[in-house]
Amino acid sequence: MYCAMVDENESQLTISVAVAFENVKVGVGLLEQAFQKIGEQGTWEEFNRVLERSRVPIGTTVRNKHDRNFEVVRDKFFRGEGFGRGFIETVLPSSRLHPEVISDVLNSLYGDSRAESKARQAEQEEQEAEQVEQQAQAEEDQEEAARLREEAKAKREQAKKLRQEAKRIGEGAIAPEILLKLENTYQMRQFTAAIKAAKVPKDFHQNALQHIQKTGITAGKQMIESIALWWYRESGQEGRDFRQAQEKQAYKAFRRRVKDGDLRAYLIKLCDKVRDLDSDIDITLTAAKFYEDEKHAKSVCSQLTKLRGNLDRLMADLSLERPAVQAEPELRCLSFEGDVG
After folding, report:
1. Do 81 and 151 reside in the same domain of the chain?
2. Are residues 69 and 213 in the same domain?
3. Which terminal residue of the chain has fewer beta carbons within 10 Å of its beta carbon, N or C?
């Protein structure tokens, strides 16, 4: 019955994403039921009997006594990690689906549960590491204590790797509802490859789909490049790279004008000069409003306006908020209209 469904679905010239999901989901559904029937200690022979695979060629049901692949698959399934493409292709009838399409569908179906499984394993490793460390502290034999500490260290490193793996799997798993919006399996392969290459987080997969739908790029190398460029901007990396380039250029310009290139030392010296200037301005203020040289007063105003503009820019650049610097109106120059005083 499953074979008939696959044959009918794949008789089309172009296989849709919906057909790919149906074929794989129905197939893994049969395998899941078989594993649930044989249980966590079930054997390869029991698995084949449940699936009524005794009628298939002997080479697919009989294995070498040293082959433990089935047990590995069984244990992963009961840990919540589903099935891999290799096992699917070995057990289920042959399909026209591209191997990458099968992998993409499986990752979509099992991605979240695989990530959760890796996270649980990491937690288990952490707990075991803590227990071993406690044993090391209580151990009187120094050599044995050292061995236990190394064992605990190895478990913590393994826990770290498992957490990283859980994050990688979880972020890379694209939800079925997103993939099903793509036109065909070739487009799905390109989209998943682009998401993986650009390392687009899970929360932005829908945005990435909307981006390619908006641009009209549906497949090929252009999709990979388009999503990579979109995420480069969307993630803020473009802005960070631009700021780094600006910073490099700014310090280069500063060092051309200041021999030692020490900005902190330069600012300290500048503050000393500012204090002296502030004192001089205080002295000038005692009689400035009575100054009668209009031409010179305007010249002084022009210089002070330029100074104030530079001071505002400097304070904005040095502040943590980095507010946008807006042009300030020029200082109102000394007025000689009307009565003095």
Report:
1. yes
2. no
3. C
